[in-house]
């Protein structure tokens, strides 16, 4: 187990940031061959300039509890590539429902992205979280339960 500081956007990308101090540990997951493709479509018109990252609001993509999102790395828009999906606010656990509502877009040429245009695709896979206790988590669990 390790102590981490998770920095996130509190209200909007480029706005106020906040830091969450927490303890975390690595754990595994498995997922099967069943998944879904979700289209990433622009929810706003946005002027883009070559090589200047820009955030673009998208139509919401719901990520169900215990699901993971993997990019489908095929360029879908002539003006650029979706680098990352984003959301603002306190980070949520994979066991919770999450909503993605913004992307970081890397333009490769100048132009305008229009509302409703396809920016990219993502793969949503349902995962099974492995409940193995990492060494640090097992030690913490034992300490908490074996207090005399």
Would you mind describing this structure in some detail?
This protein has 148 residues and is mostly beta strands. Helices cover 7% and strands 54% of the residues. The protein has a domain at 28-130: Deoxyuridine 5'-Triphosphate Nucleotidohydrolase, Chain A, CATH 2.70.40. The chain has one helix spanning 135-145, and strands at residues 2-9, 17-24, 29-41, 46-48, 54-63, 67-72, 80-86, 98-107, 111-113, 118-129. A hairpin with a 7-residue loop joins strand 1 (2-9) and strand 2 (17-24). The longest helix is centred in the C-terminal third of the chain and has 11 residues, at 135-145.
Question: Which labels suit this protein?
Answer:
3-stranded antiparallel β-sheet, Deoxyuridine 5'-Triphosphate Nucleotidohydrolase, Chain A, 10 strands, mainly beta, 7% helix
Provide a compact summary of the structure.
It is built from one helix and ten strands.
Q: What is the succession of H and E elements?
A: EEEEEEEEEEH
User: Can you summarize the main beta sheet?
Assistant: 3 strands, antiparallel
Say how many strands there are.
10
Instruction: Give the N-to-C terminal Cα separation.
Output: 23 Å
Q: How many helical elements?
A: 1
* Helix content class: under 10%
Topology:
Blueprint: E1 2-9, E2 17-24, E3 29-41, E4 46-48, E5 54-63, E6 67-72, E7 80-86, E8 98-107, E9 111-113, E10 118-129, H1 135-145
Antiparallel strand pairs: 1-2, 3-10, 4-9, 5-8, 6-10, 7-8
């Amino acid at each position: 187990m390790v102590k981490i500081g998770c920095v996130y956007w509190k209200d909007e990308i480029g706005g106020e940031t906040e830091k969450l101090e927490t303890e975390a540990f690595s754990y595994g997951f498995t997922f099967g061959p069943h998944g879904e493709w979700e289209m990433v479509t622009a929810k706003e018109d946005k002027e883009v300039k070559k090589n200047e990252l820009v955030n673009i609001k998208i139509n919401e993509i719901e990520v169900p509890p215990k699901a993971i999102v993997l990019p489908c790395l095929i360029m879908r828009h002539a003006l650029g590539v979706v680098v990352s999906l984003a959301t603002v606010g306190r980070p949520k656990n994979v066991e919770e429902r999450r909503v993605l509502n913004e992307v970081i877009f890397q333009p490769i040429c100048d132009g305008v992205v229009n509302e409703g245009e396809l920016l990219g695709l993502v793969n949503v896979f349902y995962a099974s979280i492995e409940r193995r206790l990492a060494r640090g988590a097992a030690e913490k669990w034992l300490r908490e339960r074996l207090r005399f």
